[in-house]
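Quick question, first post here. What does this chain look like in 3D?
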Amino acid sequence: MYVYRTSRKPSAQFDPLDSSASIQRDGWRFNDNRTGILYAAEVEALSILEVVARPGWESVGELTVAVIEIPDDSIVSHHDLGIALPSNWDQRPAAGNARHIGRAFLTAVDRAQASGRTICGLRVPSVISKSDHNVLLDPRQRSRFRVAQRHKIPFGRLLATLT
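> Answer (accepted):
Ran it through. Tokens below.
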């Protein structure tokens, strides 16, 4: 199965399997600053939107999109793991109580692994698209992931197609 990660960083500086940015400041939507997570999307367009919807998009010159191959059937939904999203999970800025999802996911991965089941990713809803999903990947399993492809999108060209 393929998932997509997009970055504002130039291709040479973007490691699609590096989760360190997810623990800067207070963490991101579904993780705190002690729980590294790799944020990806099930579709390329959503991965791009998730990046350009953030503050500072006006200064973006180029986007790098990475296609990551992960083991088939290794992504589950939060319902499958019994993880409940708080009612304000989609609040902007991100609600602090939604940040427990990453830790609950990694705990569920450990339980599944102890019973012989492999879970690499957690499907979660997107704030931007109600029909598409993001995928939280367990960065401790990065050896199971393969960066299948990378490509650059000049952001000016992308903006020109939207107007």
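The first strand starts at residue 2 and ends at 7.
The CA atoms of residues 58 and 91 lie 23 Å apart.
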